[in-house]
Amino acid sequence: MNCIIFAKEFDTEASASVFIEYNRKRKTTLYFKKQTTKLMKKLQALNKRTAPKSVMPEKVIQFGEGNFLRAFVDWILWNMNQRTDFNGSVVVVQPIERGMVDWLNGQDCLYHVNLQGRENGEAVNTLERIDVISRALNPYSQNQAFMALADQPEIRFVISNTTEAGIAFDPACKLDDKPASSYPGKLVQLLYRRFQTFNGDPKKGLIIMPCELIFLNGHHLKECIYQYIELWKDDFGADYEAFKEWFTKYNYVCATLVDRIVPGFPRKEIKEIQEKVSYEDNLVVQAEIFHLWVIEKAENMTCEELRAEFPAEKAGLHVLIAESEKPYHERKVTLLNGPHTVLSPVTYLSGVDIVRDACNHEVLGKYIHKVQFDELMQTLNLPMDELEKFANDVLERFNNPFVDHQVTSIMLNSFPKFQARDLPGVKTYLERKGELPQGLVFGLAAIITYYKGGKRADGAEIVPNDDQKIMDLLKELWATGDTQKVTDGVLGAEFIWGEDLHNVAGLAELVKKDLDLIQEKGMLEAVKTFL
Asked: Tell me, what's the pLDDT at 41?
């Protein structure tokens, strides 16, 4: 029996291919137009008329509308609404004059988050529609609506990510600017309006949680706020002392540490993703599955008080409310950034280009594990079970099947990175164990070797990139052909290290030994000698 199939019978490429296979098994002949397999169902616009959107009290003012906040903070808040009684939505404020609030409002602030990575050893690739943002404002063109946020009694939180340059004091800002140009200036404008609206009500202070990538970001933001209070002292007039006291006692500025890799808009996969969700979502944001938010409680509140108002831990999320973010900052720099810095030259000079492939390599995988667990982990001061969990999470992130992370992209400015991320571990390990950590010192020798330049055995270029003064020094040292001179020149370069590393007992001898080993055997064979 012959069967004629018309293109209109199919609304997706997948359904057409399934139907063809099904009929082949029945030996049915198909007459099938070519364009059938290319037809896709028409996508709907994404907005509150085509997709459900929750309506909740506006509790959060968020300065920033970019990919990171939407894939990290807003995703966390969305999960809190799903799993706890938080019941709050976000008003996004565009921190600069030009941004993407019009795009957000064009989709009624609905968008999808695509999480990819490994979790508990399994590959994960999820899509979730986020509806936690109620609206988005441009304070430059909607200043009245922006300032009116201060009058809303249910507003309780301010969250921001205005880039590292965003937390800064600009003395040119004025209280009556519409708005102040800096983020801290805008925030003080809101705070003063709120103080006035509610007559200094102690219950109407705000919990402020900056997410800018600055160590102790909340401390810096609080300092800027006080600078603006002093700058605008005459404008506040008789309110000055009372406003300053209200801010100090009844507003709570936290410092935070954020950790999630967010590649952003998935340009290569966007058509496929839109097909999956059946919406023409032009604000999809892609991120890794891992997330960590450490919130250091403000000095004028307790951890228990913050947990009661911000139940992220209760939602089962990787959010830690702590007395101090410092040990977690050290953990991240040491166990995430530290291994990256040394694995990159070792991996590349062994002929491997991708971080994931290095993790799965018979030899390089052992090297990474040694540096991570046997050396760097031993230099930190958190409970060992916490450190092991974080280190294993890091290895899963390195092994992300969806991201081809080129090791050469990590090699930029390797010497300053080693100084900040790995050198403290070298010293602490030596102090605690009475010997140098072989893997970390070998990593330093690998960096020095990488800066020799040239080509790998397979012809791939070796192209170091660093401060020109460092580049010139390494070129000059390697031109001697003498690894002793190379060792002494690098370790004695105080402009790199801020000290003479010959003072670290045994370091010069071990670096020289490793350099000779690499020159003699090649990188991969040299690694094998101490694993």
From this structure: 63
Question: Do residues 274 and 236 both lie within one domain?
Answer: yes
Q: Is residue 52 part of a domain?
A: no
What is the domain count for the chain?
A: 3
Amino acid at 301: M
Rounded CA separation 443/436 (Å): 12
**pLDDT tens digits for range 340-389:** 999 999 999 999 999 999 999 999 999 999 999 999 999 999 999 999 99
* DSSP structure string for 1-29: -EEEE-GGG-SSHHHHHHHHHHHHTTT-E
Assigned domain for 96 exists: yes
Q: Rounded to a whole number, what is the distance in angstroms from the first to the last CA of the chain?
A: 67
- What is the distance, to the nearest Å, from the Cα of residue 517 to the centroid of all Cα atoms in its chain? 37
Same domain flag for 385 and 471: yes
Residue 319: inside a domain, yes or no?
no
CATH number assigned to the domain comprising residue 373? 1.10.1040.10
Query: Which residue type does 369 have?
Result: H
Q: Among residues 126, 79, 116, 66, which one has the least CA distance to residue 288?
A: 116
Range of the domain at 159: 58-290
Average pLDDT over residues 186-215: 97
3-state secondary structure at position 202 = helix
pTM (two decimals): 0.82
Asked if omega into 179 is within 30° of 0 (cis), the reply is yes
> Are 381 and 335 within 8 A, CB to CB?
no
DSSP-derived letter for residue 179 is S
